[in-house]
Design brief:
41% of the residues lie in helices and 18% in strands. It binds guanine and fe (iii) ion. Guanine binds next to helix 2.
């Protein structure tokens, strides 16, 4: 099961899929009788003992493969604070909860514990690609890159850049920041050399970055061909502050654009309070938006008008935004995306527009997979099951041990009576809705990245 386009569900029953040792999907064969034979038909030189077969036919009940989730915005360093935000809003939340926590990760043993735990949790929840923010500290950011490589997750490592308007205990000078970012980029590219791990240029957000720093970041992103991630238009007080700091810029988006930080490999988190002109600019630059609905509801930042962004042809993916968001799960984030869209619909008076504003189950599952891949400019590589793409996958079992998902007998009969013919699309859409609304990590029973099993893993 995958979502090749917004709102579109593709179900391929009785299908076998072959993955080469480098993780690439080599064939997808419908109406398969014998996966082993399919592999030998594909490559005549293969001998049966050289082929491993992951066979859904052997899994009884409601099981299916779904592309691995893509978390386009997650602060790994903030994981210990998941759930802890009180009644704060962005700017006081940063001062009270976030900066003190992040500063503590300078202690490498402390960082190791937190980052290892983040990998345990994200992989167990089916996240196969994540775009991480670490902290300002280079050494522990490099450690995070090591841990991701060791655990087999596809990851962007964003050493956080901030050289102004930050507390004395958690700030770098311009030259220290330049030095430590280059250290992380060089470590990942020249020492670690794992093609699943990439550095990402991460100006925290405009208020904490000097004009000199942003100028330099825009330049090295261009010169060294790097992805970029930052926060944009999250909170009303933040907007006011940005206007004061950058009176020469037409809008918040224009601040980043002035420093060449809006590229087709830029991930912009939140984007809640954008003008039409800003939306046009983001579209023009081909930057992507990370929608973080759990965070936006929790620290009461606002409701992102995702349908408006999608209607303008902007790439949108989902972000947990730990720990503005409290949940490590992209499934839970997709559920919240659906609910927030309905809150926006409730405020719309025109009945037709109201219906259009509502994101469907298929829509939010698309955002969780291919949408996220587009935002990270990886849609040729992951996000759906296609020949030539990587096998980044979760095996979902709606009846796994402890599952909260209840599927009643009559529904089950419908499935089995038809010889497990799950091309009964309506039935399958119902099951996916059950997964989205009542499922959790207990339903994610196995996870692969690049064909390699990463969950359950060996520790
Ligand atoms: N804006 C600047 N820093 C942060 C952060 O850590 N989290 C969120 N949600 N917004 C931010
Ligand atoms: Fe964030």
């Amino acid at each position: 099961v995958d979502t090749p386009a917004l709102g579109q569900l593709r179900i391929r029953a009785r299908t076998s899929l072959g993955v080469s040792p480098d993780g690439t999907i080599q064939f997808i064969k419908a109406e398969s009788q014998n996966p082993l034979q399919d592999a030998m038909d594909f490559d005549k030189s293969l001998k049966p003992w050289e082929i491993s077969v992951i066979d859904t036919f052997q899994h009884q009940g409601f099981t299916f493969f779904f592309p691995g989730f893509i978390d386009t915005h997650v602060h790994a360093s903030q994981y210990p604070n998941a759930g802890i935000f009180g009644s704060s809003t962005l700017l006081d939340w940063l001062e009270t909860y976030t900066f003190p926590l992040e500063a503590g990760l300078k202690d490498i043993d402390h960082a190791r514990k937190i980052y290892s735990r983040v990998l345990d949790k994200t992989l167990a929840h089916g996240t196969t690609t994540a775009s991480y923010y670490t902290t300002i500290d280079a050494n522990s950011s490099n450690l995070m890159a090591d841990i991701c490589a060791q655990r087999g997750q596809r990851a962007f490592i964003g050493k956080v850049c901030m050289d102004q308007n930050s507390p004395d205990y958690y700030i770098e000078s311009l030259s220290d920041c330049q030095h430590s970012l280059q250290k992380v980029v060089n470590y990942i590219r020249e020492e670690l050399k794992d093609d699943k791990i990439k550095p990402i240029v991460t100006p925290r957000f405009a208020p904490t970055c000097s004009k000199e720093l942003m100028t330099w970041l825009g330049k090295i992103a261009h010169d060294q061909d790097l992805h970029i991630q930052t926060h944009l238009s999250e909170n009303k007080n933040e907007l006011k502050w940005v206007k004061e700091l950058f009176p020469e810029c037409e809008s918040y988006s224009d601040v980043y654009d002035s420093y060449n930080l809006l590229t087709n490999k830029t991930v912009l988190a939140h984007c809640i309070h954008l003008s039409d002109k800003e939306i046009d600019l983001i579209k023009e630059r081909e930057s992507g938006v990370s929608h973080c609905p759990i965070s936006n509801s929790s620290i009461t930042s606002g409701e992102c008008e995702v349908r408006r962004l999608l209607d303008h042809g902007i790439k949108v993916g989902l972000g947990t935004d730990l720990s503005g968001g409290y949940d490590v799960s992209i499934l839970a984030t997709a559920r919240q995306a659906l609910l927030v869209s309905r809150h926006l619909a409730m405020k719309e008076v025109d009945a037709k527009k109201q219906e259009h504003l509502k994101l469907s189950v298929n829509d939010v599952l698309y955002l969780s997979s291919l949408g996220g891949a587009q935002v990270l400019a990886m849609d040729q590589q992951v996000g759906t099951f296609e020949v030539g793409k990587q096998f980044d996958t979760q095996l979902i079992d709606l009846e796994s041990a402890g599952s909260r998902v209840d599927v009643f007998d009559w529904q089950y009969t419908k499935w089995t009576d038809e010889g497990r013919d799950i091309e009964n699309t309506k039935l399958f859409e119902d099951l996916l809705a059950k997964w989205l609304f009542t499922g959790d990590d207990r339903n994610t029973v196995r996870v692969w990245v690049g064909g390699k099993q990463v969950f359950p893993g060996t520790k």
